[in-house]
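Appendix C: a fully annotated inverse folding record. The material below is reproduced so that readers can follow the format used throughout the book. The structure is listed first as tokens, followed by the designed sequence.
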């Protein structure tokens, strides 16, 4: 997952630079008390991200961003399934 996220971020940064869009600063990760809390958050985050990527892939106006969103949605879907599997084992 880390490799996929890093690769996607680098590709998106290149598109942002090409489109003269400012790249937002890095958010500080919160501390997690329990593995279950973390995995619950990962499932929710990936569900939200997947919906946003799919929406952009379908309705976006910039062809480069639409293509990126379509390609990346597939990876996000895989990550969501992995997160759900791990989360289910922690219940």
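Designed amino acids, in order:
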């Amino acid at each position: 997952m880390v490799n996929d996220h890093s690769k996607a971020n680098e590709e998106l940064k290149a598109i942002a630079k090409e489109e003269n869009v400012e790249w937002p600063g890095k958010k500080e990760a919160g501390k997690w008390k329990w593995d279950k809390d973390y995995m619950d958050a990962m499932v929710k985050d990936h569900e939200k991200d997947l919906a946003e990527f799919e929406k952009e892939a379908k309705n976006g106006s910039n062809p480069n961003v639409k293509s990126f969103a379509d390609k990346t949605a597939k990876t996000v879907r895989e990550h969501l399934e992995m997160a759900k599997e791990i989360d289910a084992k922690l219940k």
